[in-house]
């Protein structure tokens, strides 16, 4: 069939009353894609020219759709929401020159390309004036019922159904293909319902009464579910999510407790990867091959290289992680983080806007923000980059093979040179030259026999004089080695001396 002769009209002007939310239902996401974008993308894939009818929150929906760069789509505004028939009437100018008009509710995100093609093709083959989709459903509540009498169809909306009609399980799906000339001649003939609306499905009764050819196409209910309530949104999302999980299973991805996992529509996962319980994979995330994602981790708009392990309860956003990397448990890569291959990020480490070169490690209780960390660097536990003075952000550079001691406060802007060391417990305010040792901490002083003085009465064995001398010398730095430190910034021990450290 030549789809160039077909105009698609998508109805999305409704008030979303049954959602009971401030926001229009069209803007709610299903697996990371706003609901209205599902039928739009499906129609776009078929190469159909589209008119989107907007009303309630039209500015927000229009802005969203425009940002998605859809091919061949125009907008019509229905100022007052007087029903689906009125909405189609508002778009009358947009279908001039087209042979057939495909009309669809905008709240059916599960509709497939195949069904639309089937509808268009059968419409043409049967030379019908009007074709519509119907479905059988166990609980038809809220749908218009398809009532057939002596070969004539009528759609009765739920609020207008009598008791007998309420029992009908065949519903009007909300997808129609109509000959444009016939539509133009009849759209104005729809009369107001008792509730003051113009019902589009009344056209089915009108076509039936005029003895024109009407084609009914029965389709699976799941494909044409309407979304009028938050519960129906949840149903639709469950179906979409299951589709994605089943697809990735078929591509060699193992899911632990699959029913607890969330996957967005644009996520890609490499074969051999393991996705743990409760993992959320969001946005444009790409997971490599043979990865392990531990339970309850969240990865959003990020790329994870092959053979990488994300331990449980980690959160990764807008970041790129290399191959054979370890992250977490309880780690957070907040934004624009780039981790090279074989990097190890441990528990309670938060990283933002930072690049870390291959083989580097930061394994415990650390914040790295606006930093550039080279290769084979070790960041000690409890290190904090102080990147923000309350007004501006500053950069910390830690070059290849540097060793940052534990509990360091790195006051940016700062450069720690290649192979340099910083002493544990330091506040580093100045650059440390390559190969050097930066120490920035107050010297410890030991007060001898403090506890005895404090407790007064406590009897303890007096120390021998020689023992007192040696302890005092050590405490006051009176030895000849008083200014010498080993590479961790500790006072040199005899062993250090022997090892020439
Ligand atoms: C509609 C059908 C019903 C069918 C069901 C299938 C009518 C009157 N009823 O009911 O027979 O079984 O879909 O899901 O059509 N809209 C406008 N302007 C308006 C009113 C609605 O653009 O003035 C849009 C809505 O945004 C929505 C679509 O039309 O996308 C359908 O409207 P909705 O109120 O959801 O109709 P249903 O009660 O679901
Ligand atoms: Ca609906």
From the 3D coordinates, which CATH architecture of the largest domain would you assign? Alpha-Beta Complex
Write down how many β-strands occur, each being a DSSP E stretch of 2 or more residues: 37
Beta-strand portion reads 25-35%
DSSP summary: helix tally? 11
What about the largest sheet? 23 strands, parallel
Kindly report the oligomeric state of this protein: single chain
Top-tier CATH class of the largest domain:
Alpha Beta
Form type? elongated
The distinct ligands, each listed once, are: uridine-diphosphate-N-acetylglucosamine, calcium ion
Q: Helix- and strand-based class?
A: alpha/beta
What is the CATH fold-level name of the largest domain? Spore Coat Polysaccharide Biosynthesis Protein SpsA, Chain A
Helical coverage, percent range: 10-25%
Residue stretches low in confidence (pLDDT < 50, at least 5 long) are 475-483, 487-493
- How many domain regions? 3
Cα-to-Cα separation, first versus last residue: 83 Å
Considering the protein shown, what is the CATH homologous superfamily of the largest domain? Spore Coat Polysaccharide Biosynthesis Protein SpsA, Chain A
Mean pLDDT, all residues: 93
Radius of gyration: 35 Å
